[in-house]
Amino acid sequence: MAATQEEIVAGLADIVNEIAGIPVEDVQLDKSFTDDLDVDSLSMVEVVVAAEERFDVKIPDDDVKNLKTVGDATDYILKHQG
Amino acid sequence: MSKIKTRKGAPYARILGVGGYRPTRVVPNEVILETIDSSDEWIRSRSGIETRHWANDEETVAAMSIEASGKAIADAGIRAEQIGAVVVSTVSHFSQTPAVATEIADKLGTNQAAAFDISAGCAGFGYALTLAKGMVVDGSAEYVLVIGVERLSDLTDLEDRTTAFLFGDGAGAVIVGPSEEPHIGPTVWGSEGDKSDTIKQTVPWNEFRLGDVSQLPLDGKGNVKFPAITQEGQAVFRWAVFEMAKVAQQALDAAGITPDDLDVFIPHQANVRIIDSMVKTLKLPEHVTVARDIRTTGNTSAASIPLAMERLLATGEAKSGDTALVIGFGAGLVYAATVVTLP
Ligand SMILES: CC(C)(COP(=O)(O)OP(=O)(O)OC[C@H]1O[C@@H](n2cnc3c(N)ncnc32)[C@H](O)[C@@H]1OP(=O)(O)O)[C@@H](O)C(=O)NCCC(=O)NCCS
User: For the Carrier domain, which residue ranges apply (chain A) (predicted)?
Assistant: First the structure.
């Protein structure tokens, strides 16, 4: 069952909360991982690995750097989820 | 067909002593910042590294190994003549022939111990330990000296901002010998050669003799650069935090040890962020002491686990008899994990 946009944002919020300790309500579509959510380039790798598992997607390293905001990641997952 | 006689060794093997050598020169992040555009804050937050040791001309691979081995031999309470084999893991001994292990075996005063080098990158300690265990149990040697030693400063491109701050020099050694009880668990190890490009030497040695240096990387002054270790940092990080936590768990399972039974976790000191992530994924309880020697040692590849082990025992953070999970991983890509009782 493919996840909806809402479910993906909620899932990412859980993941970011787990990895960077940011409150789930702060994780919104327009937020930048590095500038707003305290997720640096290495934490981002952890976020991606967790998201891959949760949403059954593959996010190659080369694509990771294009995922600047929660919205970017959500769109990517919507498009690529299995 | 004739019947071939065999030897029988000890029922089991264990680590009986550990020793380390850290070069005298301590290099703070400020020195790294002279050649790369970075900051102390960035280096600390992305790697955990505050200082590392770099060897001087006298602190050769052999000299550092001999120092570390002397301490391990004393710690084990044996004499050098009792050592039947010397296994050295290194990627930074530049005279490829002969193996540096033979010089070490001789200078330590062993009685013509078997001696050889292996190349297994940052997993080298686990690989050598596994060989040593086998030798003790099959009777090839009563005591085996295992050394992890690197002068990675010689293989560091100080102008490469993704690696200049990472590497350090040093030697760590252990004595593996006979035991009536099992004190080294099964090794979970392997290789993923399809990822051989993620950590490698910039230029193979033979390119230097082919005459045409125009293709070789140059430094700021136009001189041909010495080969260095280069890596795809993010890919290695992803592999380490995701795949290596699984391997560590398999080593615990193979030894029949739960996280609650564990006293100490000594992962290869590659990056404090990898260590922290593994601790989380493995759900290691609070009581487990975690080696974070990387802060003041940097990444010393094959030497990192025995160096961290020695420091934890020296500071009293870990004690003899503790149960420790060790895991090494790196260029190859290769990995090796096992559970040991600390000496
Ligand atoms: C080396 C390592 C710390 C680099 O971190 P990273 O987050 O992957 O670095 P990146 O190259 O992706 O760069 C991320 C950002 O930091 C910047 N950066 C890179 N190196 C920097 C440095 N030395 N100082 C300051 N900034 C740096 C980059 O320009 C980039 O900035 P941008 O996002 O604004 O473009 C990390 O990848 C790592 O440790 N990987 C594991 C390596 C390892 O353990 N190898 C040995 C295994 S045995």
Answer: 3-81
